[in-house]
């Protein structure tokens, strides 16, 4: 209450009655009663340093919450350190088989998975891929009706047609 009273005295308002001041101070008291004094004090200090208008209780509450956030973060971090680690997940054979099937369909075989770390280490891509199996499908075989419709719509779009015409003119007739 003392900090609110001192802060409000900084902002001159000649037509404010004593009853109005009491009501404002009570609003501050209700809004700030659940916060620690040090955080409220820090919020008022920040407001007095930075602002040019009289604060509302909501302004000070927001600054108080901001002052408390580092402490809350630290407490959450300490609490997380105290909790036991989550036990490792044990996958059933059915889950493992399903995951392996997805990888196989995507073209990731055990041999290819061995090659990937060598490729990441900086070896030549041709050398790393030499032992990897080649995909048995092309993009054209995976096309759906939806992609054909999309291509047809794109080809019919006047902006796309104009862009293609401009690109053809830019390439020139000799090329």
Automatic annotation (TrEMBL):
Location of the region described as Disordered in the Swiss-Prot/TrEMBL record: 75-140
Report biased composition (Basic and acidic residues) as residue ranges: 75-104, 111-121
* Official protein name in the record: Uncharacterized protein
Q: Which organism is it from?
A: Salipiger marinus
